[in-house]
Amino acid sequence: MNAVTQYDIDGTALGVSTTVTLTEGITVTYFTELGASKPHEVALRIGDSDCIEMNYSEELADLFARVDEVPAVEFLATCYANLWRLKQ
Questions:
Q1: 42 near 28, Cβ under 8 Å?
Q2: pLDDT digits (tens, 9 = 90+) for 49-74
Q3: What are the tens digits of pLDDT across the range 11-27?
């Protein structure tokens, strides 16, 4: 696990990103705003270039914790259901 504080151009701390390696070549990064108790966004990275950004949910957190037990179809369906979308 690797945690990094993110800063704005003026040096203001914006939040923390925490990266967890699920398996070789696949990582999950959780983005948490300062003062928040839970992340607001999750990025699933496969290899060096492919990235799926999603809204954080307890369902995703549970899925990533059980990645070795979850069928691929369930894994992808859950990721799709939580894809990041602009809040309107």
A1: yes
A2: 788 888 898 888 888 888 778 888 88
A3: 888 899 999 888 888 88
How buried is 38 (Cβ within 10 angstroms: 0-12 exposed, 13-18 middle, 19+ buried)? exposed
53: which 2 tokens? Answer: 């950004």
pTM recorded for the entire structure? 0.77
DSSP H/E element including 60? helix 58-65
Alpha-carbon separation of residue 79 from 6, 14, 27, 58, 69 (angstroms):
24, 25, 14, 12, 16
